Fold this protein.
Amino acid sequence: MSTPPAPPRRYRVLFHIRQIGVGGIENALLGWLRALDRNQFDVDVSVALPTRELDVYQQRLPQDVTLHTLLAPGALVSLHQRRRDHALSAGGRMLLGMGMALRGRREIHARLRTLAAQYDILVDFDLTLRKAVASMPVPVVGVRHFAFWPRRTAKARRVGADLARYDGVAMLNPTMQAQARGLYGDALRAVFELPNAFDLESMRRQAVRDGPPDIAGEYVVCVARLDMRTKGLDLLLSAWARLKRERPDLPYRLVLVGEGPDRAALEARCAQLGIGDAVLFTGVQRNPFRWMRWARALVLASRHEGSPNVLIEAMAMGCVPVSTDCPVGPRDLLEGGRIGLLVPVDDETALTQALVRAVTDETLRRESVAAGLARAAGFGVAASNQRFLAMTRQLVEARHSR
């Protein structure tokens, strides 16, 4: 009598992140926690330092995901939150640095070592464990969200030395993989292409469930952290002001979905440009997908990105994307401009013209929507699980074979 085959192994995965804010990395982590197949993975998450945003984030976690907070509330956590609020003095920053060096990091790493022993693999989602990787009892994969440098500068060498400690390093797109291989060759143990994961059907259900946003008329949306230097929102407002001057026949409003340190400065800039009535600030939205689903176009004006989630989300929502051709993600995601429109970074004229075309050119819109929906499918649940399973198996088997 033949023995029945053993059931497929279910891997225990612990994701780790230093802190929870309101940025793209946190949303990308949430995407993985939701997307991984529970027939193949048990999934939890650890957070080194609790923050004010953690309570809101925890409400969005799948019910079967346990959240472990490694540093208990106390003086260090309080000082850390004040620093995030830009309310910590120079003396306070010095005290926080000393406290983390003398006690905080050691306590975090010790608790994480004990916790990680219960799992098969540890995913360092923001590369904040680079000094502690060697002491972890399971394989550790680090996730790199940003582009590398064109040359082996001193900083590039330091980052390479840190990445070489990991059992594997995951990159978001082929361009980043090529950059890493060009800079570091075989110094990295294993390199994986691991785009962010998206539960596309769930996103679409959410977008339709709540219906169109309560806003008069049509609009163009930008979903981003309100950070002018990185996200290029100063340029976007200038381009929008120019659009309103040159094309007063276009009745659209610009909607900024998100929050960040530069909100007051951006609102003041709108008043200075005379476009206060043409720009809406919504703050953080629990359901940003509905804003994309009903928008005429989505715009990303960033100066730097890794693999911007909003472009994938926009394509999945059937929204025409307009993006700067910043390093490194948009060109890969939009297939060199075959989907939507790519414009040079910090080019106000080109961005204005692209926005006009995105809302008026029906042929472009029809072709971009169709191509975008097909492109987004490659980041869905099935494809993401295949990539993650292959990476996990390779790293776990490599550790066991040592």
